[in-house]
Amino acid sequence: MNSHRRIAHLDMDAFFASVELRHYPMLRGQPVVVGGRRVDRPVEQADGSLRFARLRDYVGRGVITTSTYEARALGVFSGMGLMKAAQLAPDAILLPANFDAYRDYSRRFKAAVASVAPVIEDRGIDEIYIDLSGIAEDSLPLARRIKQAVLAATGLTCSIGITPNKLLAKIASDLDKPDGITILGHEDVPTRIWPLAARKINGIGPKAAERLRAMGVDTVGQLAAVAESELVRRFGASTGSWLWRAARGIDERPLVTERDPKSVSRESTFERDLDVGLDRAALSEAFTGLCARVADDLARKGLVARTIGIKLRFADFSTVTRDLTLAEPLADARAIRQAAGQCLKRIALGKRIRLLGVRAAGLQPPPATPVPVAVQAELQLF
Fold it and tell me: According to its UniProt record, what is one Pfam family this protein matches (predicted)?
């Protein structure tokens, strides 16, 4: 083990909800849920005040994107269906997601961190790993300086865990939320990590947790007490050895500071299952919009795609995908729609559609000489 590594995991506190509270400060201290993009935005009243939607009024299949800590205290968490959440917190404020704002704040907080500690692994819109090993500053004042930079750039708080590796840092950043700083060494694993639920280890999902529970393993400490040979026997060589090491806080993974994207995709789950005949206009609009968003993603990354694919999930939850590899790469929204339409022709559309997705893969830099796009008549499948 490299005892000289110092890795931080920074996690923004209730990020989407916190961004919304920047826009609507009058909602601070109240249970607020973000989700259901079709929900009407707050409506301005005659007296200048805003009328907000309530969770009890929601009807549909949307899920919670995030919630404030006040809403979480009522049992309402991200990933939960909005209809189920309404039973627990009917008076909670419901806001539609605003991903343009979230991406803006994400760029701001990452730039702020980079001004203090530039070696960063981007893990998503609201979290990053930071390698602090080369910075000659004690961990506590350094963490405070990073948090202050984030606050100054965004007005938002974050929580930071600083440990010898990524696995422990990810766990540590969650221990003192919100607005927390947790600094741990390997010597702290028995007292701070072993009492936690095994699910707190990033990588142990519901199925693995259920298998561990059947072995009598509920906590990280109980997992650490299981012989490596037994874990290998039950989970296989790779997973079994990883579980044994993870329970002891062992993780030598480096930070990945640059990534080559393999694909970009966009998808939409509909509020109700759509019929290809009766809801043709809505499906067509959604299909065109997804293609446009994939084209925007490609443009931002400066890439073109050789493969276009689609994904359909039907009302019975069966899922079908189709891909088309092209002779020449493309990035234009209309050309993406045409290629995706060719994929669509290869799927029997006899059932109502629950989810629609569009994917671009085989990504590469654009050719030096742009390839002319042959525009054909639009397919009218929907």
Answer: IMS_HHH_1
- Spell out the domain ranges in the chain: 16-41+51-98, 194-250, 263-364
Q: Return the higher-pLDDT residue of 293 and 2.
A: 293
**Catalytic status, residue 267:** no
Please, is 360 exposed, middle or buried when counting C-beta atoms within 10 Å of its C-beta (0-12, 13-18, 19+)?
Answer: buried
Binding residues: 11, 126
In the chain, how long is the greatest CA-to-CA distance? 70
pLDDT at site 378 = 47
Q: Mean pLDDT throughout 39-65?
A: 84
Q: Please return the burial class of 173, using the count of CB atoms within 10 Å of its CB with bins 0-12, 13-18 and 19+.
A: buried
Q: Which CATH number fits domain 16-41+51-98: 2.60.40.10, 3.90.1150.10, 3.40.1170.60, 2.60.40.1180?
A: 3.40.1170.60
Rounded distance between C-alpha atoms, residue 79 and residue 65, angstroms: 6
**Which of 61, 96, 309, 287 lies closest to 279, judged by CA?**
287
CA distance 122 to 203: 18
Q: How confident is the model at residue 179 (pLDDT cuts 50, 70, 90)?
A: very high
Reported as a single tens digit per residue, the pLDDT across 323-347 is: 999 988 999 999 999 999 999 999 9
| Interval 10-27 mean pLDDT | 94
Q: Which residues are annotated as a binding site for Mg(2+)?
A: 11, 126
Strands 304-314 and 319-330: antiparallel
Separation CA 101–CA 20 (nearest Å)? 9
Which CATH fold would you assign to the domain 263-364?
Dna Ligase; domain 1 (3.30.1490)
- Give the predicted TM-score (pTM) of the model: 0.70
